[in-house]
Amino acid sequence: MIRTFLLLFSLLIFSCQSDSGYESPAPFANPERTIVLMHPTVLNLERFMFLTSQGLFTLPGNYQVVGVYHKAAAYDYSLSHKFLREKQPGNIALVGLEPVLDPADLFAENALSADFRKIFEHSQGVIFFGGPDIPPAIYGAETSLLTVITDPQRHHLELSFLFHLLGGYQDEAFAPFLEENPEYRILGICLGMQTMNVATGGTMYQDIPTELYNVHTVEGVLAQPADEQHRNYYIHYKTEPEVFPYSFHRIRLKEGSIMAQVAGDVSLMPVIASSHHQALQKIGKGWDVTAWSADGRIAEAIEHKHYPNVLGIQFHPEIIPLYNGEVLHMYPGQTQGKTFLEAFPGEEGEDFHRSFWRFMGEVFR
Question: What pTM, to 2 d.p., does this model score?
């Protein structure tokens, strides 16, 4: 009976995929070894495949990946199907969900609630990747002129899914899915962490330079110390497309936290790659802030107080140039760059990032 249900569910979900011709495995065939990737763009798939193939993010040999997306989102996911058709990884399936959510119903039972439950029950964890600004109306704010909204359907999907998983201040009577399985794994990267916060009733600073540092020009940001720059604003000049679109700055870690465990020493201030202009303001329900920018103004990591395997990070440990020895050019006209490994060797740079993925491998195992 259980096998029959799983087969029927797999066929049901698989029918949601676009007609791409990609011969993927049936999704959710092994719920104890299935990891969900939200927003499975080519870039995110490439990064995940690099991390796992290079032994940085070590997973069980029989794990399966299911990329979940909304068919009405802005990204063209046929590119992801094409990418997988060419690479033939053999263990990655893609699922496109169709019902369009009303923004008024994101934090309640809605047209996708049944799909969210099936995904939760048939996977062991989910990763939420980076991306564009969340529509401020969702957290009750007016829209700053510096906020750029490009993909509302993606945000609606991910915000509502995370609310179903974790609950939030929006409806404290709502029973989150993780109450049924508190060991479920969730990792949010950059936008993923911001989505975790907003989904649970938090709010956002819509622009770090203007709201937190009273800086209103690109030149003004670039004149700040490196620890106060949270993305590489040289990309605004658009003169050299190879300029690395991330900045590097240090973070402080909370004693006793997962982040301190990853670093191995709470006194360390790891150097991380960062590319965001928004930051957590009011903290959502259930979170403990466990890492901050060097000056303490920006939340850099959050860990859930009740669910031990739920972590959000504001930085980007998943980008390939941190590990492959690529020479990075940080500003226009730079003639000699350094690799990340050369610029930040040892426990506060390379070692910290490798330790992070070793830890996540243990969490998702």
Answer: 0.93
Quote the CA–CA distance of 41 and 30 in Å, as a whole number.
Answer: 23
Amino acid identity, position 350: E
pLDDT tens, residue by residue, 136-167:
999 999 999 999 999 999 999 999 999 999 99
Q: Which CATH architecture has domain 2-364?
A: 3-Layer(aba) Sandwich (3.40)
Residue 276, Ramachandran bin (φ over 0: left; ψ between -120 and 50: alpha; else beta): beta
Centre a 10 Å sphere on the Cβ of residue 73 and count the other Cβ atoms it contains: 20
Q: How far apart are CA 67 and CA 84, in angstroms?
A: 11
Q: Which amino acid is at 101?
A: L
List CB contacts of 212: < 8 A, sequence separation 6 or more: 205, 279, 297, 298
Which residues in the chain belong to E strands, given as ranges? 34-38, 64-70, 92-97, 125-128, 185-189, 204-205, 247-253, 271-274, 279-280, 287-293, 299-304, 310-313
Q: How many CA atoms lie within 13 A of 305 on its CB side?
A: 9
